[in-house]
Amino acid sequence: MEKYKVILDTDFATDVDDAFALAYMLANPNVEVMGVVCVTGEALERAQLASALCIDMGQPDIPIYTGLETCILRKQYQYECPQKFLLDRWPHRDASDFPRCEAINFMRKTIRENPGEIILCCIGPLSDVGILFQIDPELPSLLRGMQILGGRFQYNEYSERSWLKKSGNTIGNEATLAQVLDWNVCIDGIASAMVVDPSHKFNYLRFVGDEMTMGIYMTREEFNTGLAKKLPPSLVDMANAWVEIGGRDFDRPLVHFHDAIGVATNFNPNICEFVRGTVNIEMDSPTLRGFTTFVEDPEGPHQIAVKVNPDEFFKEFTSVFK
What we know:
One of its GO terms (biological process) is purine nucleoside catabolic process. The chain is of the alpha/beta class.
């Protein structure tokens, strides 16, 4: 069976879905995780938590790097790692084990040493990758492909309230204009726009927007009485910690799988249906910076997911955990 080489760029340990994505790839015999890059605030704690999952899954030597913690011309809304308290519960690598300021160099070197082989999976804000492609504009053409969990292209029954209050907004609502903007794309909107620059030549660049993944979740009871029994203990702990945090701070006491869905589509073409066209990301408006639009075009350079099959996703996800 074909082996896929993957670099994961992630804001690990904000939500639990990043951990689901990494665990899925570590458990998948057809995937070789070449490295993990952790982006946004408290990147070190994110990297240490990623290492805890790797250790728990018997793969302690996966290369993990701390990426950028700041944004281009915008304050960082994702300035902390909400699940860092879990470091007290699980063995993890020491802070000295994570090379600082080397994430972009690592990605550049790995892609160039493996031309046409690397899938770059981006499941967090795009700060690292935007800078990476500015430093070395040839890299997109050297990738096997690139997948972004991000963007908002359709407004459907899963959409949340789309206006702000005069006061009392959560950080999430303030950053996204109450869900008008997608989190991963708008946190560093200029970097996101750099990624989709029309001068970049990708073999494929796919977006799975949050409207595709928002409706795929489990309640805490469903998770703990079913799927959790197949998963590594540290991952189950991270999921339950997120339910506590999400229920308290975000009014979402559910286990979501956003990033895992985005990652899994690279290896199972039956999870999502894609349409080709051009993704544009607003960069001029300070208020709407990071707003995503799409023009369908059979000759376009990008693809967006337009349908998702939840049953196929869960079948794929659970199949790798024995």
